[in-house]
Write a sequence for this structure.
């Protein structure tokens, strides 16, 4: 690849219905009440990442598009689950909401299988959506306890497809653009 060739930072994701986004917005407001330094995920950027592809060239992007077209899957019903946080060495870093449903795991596996000779499979797929990125909290224990106490309505929602998306990192945060959409049966 020559240096002038541009790379696309790409990922494969599921997006959410308005009803789900509304519930996530309510939960985000509760998270915001807990003092922390960091950033809430913009509502328009909410998604469930099925596979992060990283920076890929145009040739690889075309191969990915072609492989994803061959994936057969049925429309699925998922639901919002519990809230929690991922920590690194005891420091909370990500606040997330679990996305539940056996079919999302099956779809993720089909994507991994379709791309297995191009990308390594996910080592530990976590079916979640990120609602906040935490840089610093004073009281780690209290922060985690308060996050866990936030109730999330178990909204069920239909997923009819997934998208191949482009991520552009900018000063004010990432901007996501659809590259291609893939529909279920």
């Amino acid at each position: 690849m020559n240096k002038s060739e541009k790379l696309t930072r790409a990922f494969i994701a599921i997006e959410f219905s308005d009803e789900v986004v509304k519930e996530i917005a309510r939960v985000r407001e509760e998270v915001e009440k807990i003092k922390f330094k960091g950033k809430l995920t913009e509502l328009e950027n909410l998604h469930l990442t099925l596979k992060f592809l990283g920076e890929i060239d145009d040739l690889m992007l075309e191969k990915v598009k072609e492989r994803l077209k061959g994936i057969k899957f049925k429309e699925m019903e998922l639901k919002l689950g519990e809230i929690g946080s991922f920590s690194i060495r005891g420091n909370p870093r990500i606040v997330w909401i679990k996305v539940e449903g056996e079919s999302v795991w099956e779809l993720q596996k089909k994507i991994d299988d379709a791309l297995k000779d191009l990308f390594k499979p996910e080592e530990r797929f976590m079916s979640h959506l990120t609602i906040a990125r935490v840089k610093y909290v004073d009281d780690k224990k209290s922060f985690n306890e308060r996050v866990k106490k936030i109730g999330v309505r178990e909204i069920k929602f239909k997923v009819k497809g997934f998208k191949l998306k482009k991520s552009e990192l900018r000063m004010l945060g990432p901007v996501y653009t659809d590259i291609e959409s893939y529909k279920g049966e």
In short: The chain is about 30% helix and 40% strand.
